[in-house]
Structure formats: C-alpha cells, structure tokens
Write the structure tokens for this entry.
Amino acid sequence: MGGVASTIAALAIANLVLLTAVGCPYRVQGPPAMAETVQVVVVSNASRLPRAQAYLQDEVALALTKRLGWKVGPTGTARLELVLNQERKRQVGTGDRNIPNRWSIVLDGSALIASRQGNRTYAYTGTGYESSRADEPDGLRAAAAACANDLAGWLEAEFKQPIAASVKPATGSTKATSESVPPATQTVKPGELPAPAAARP
C-alpha cells in the first residue's frame, strides 16, 4: 500500500508542476485598468476620532497600490473623494461580573471616483474592535483597513477588464487565399456565353 500511495502522490505532484509550467491559455478576467494616477482625498470628515481620517487615507492608498496595482499620488488626474461619517461604537462583549470589555468601531461613508473613464459612487463601511481605550487606535486602524478592502472590491468590480488569449499571427506567406478574395463578376448579354474564368496562378 505504501508503494501505491507514494506513486499516486508523485503523479499528483508531477501534474501540478506541469499545469503550473504550462499555464492557462485564457484569462477570464484581467486586472482593473486605471491609466491615471489617483488622488485619495477625504472631502468631509465627521468623525470625532482624530486618527480616523489619516488611517482611512493610508489604508485606502495601500489597498489601491497593493491589491489593484494602481498608482496613487497627490497630483493624480483621477480623484477618489471620500466622505467619512461619524463613527459608531457599540458594546459587543462583557467580562467578569458582566462588565463591558469589548466594543465595535464602525466607520462608513460615501465615495466618488472621478476619472477619464467616468464617475462612479459607492457607500462603504468597515468594522474594527477594541477592548479598552488603550487599544482604540488598533481597532480604528482595523476599521479603516476594512473600509479600504470594501472600496478596493468595489473599484475592482467597476473597472474590471476582460481580456482574450493572445493569438500570434501565422508566419510565412502573406499571399491572399481564394477565401479572402471575392469572386469576379461580369455582365453577360442575352444570347452570349460567359467568358471562361482566368486560370489561377
């Protein structure tokens, strides 16, 4: 049994290596296309937490560059404008003697992407968690990262570009074939026979 199992495992590994090396000839979905550099701007901030805006901008810029491969910069011709609403905190856990010890932090708002490809809008949201005032920055950062992930998913869907497999033109003679040349026409008067077709070279 051990020999059979080893043989099956070896064949499976060989097939996996072969598939990886050969690759798939078609890509159903290409990467999101954005030829412009994108500015990430918070145009309105209603949050009471001082770090919320900076965290949101940082995390969104990181998501656009790492996940989508877009260029982000302060002088970009495309703009991602973010409206940040007031955060919402809610108790979600208790400890000994029923004392609250865990809270959620929800960030949300609206987004507008304005580029040469048109304008699109979206409502985003993200949630983080904290267990004390001391780790509030970590929970806020997690909420901002969740918002960024939500926005990146939206942009990925909006700007997706399906691409077909590349096909190289055949090499060799470029001489037109008979299928590509329309048949010649001629006018025949009543009582006349059509002229014989010219011999093909």
Helices lie at 2-22, 52-66, 136-158. The first strand starts at residue 38 and ends at 45.
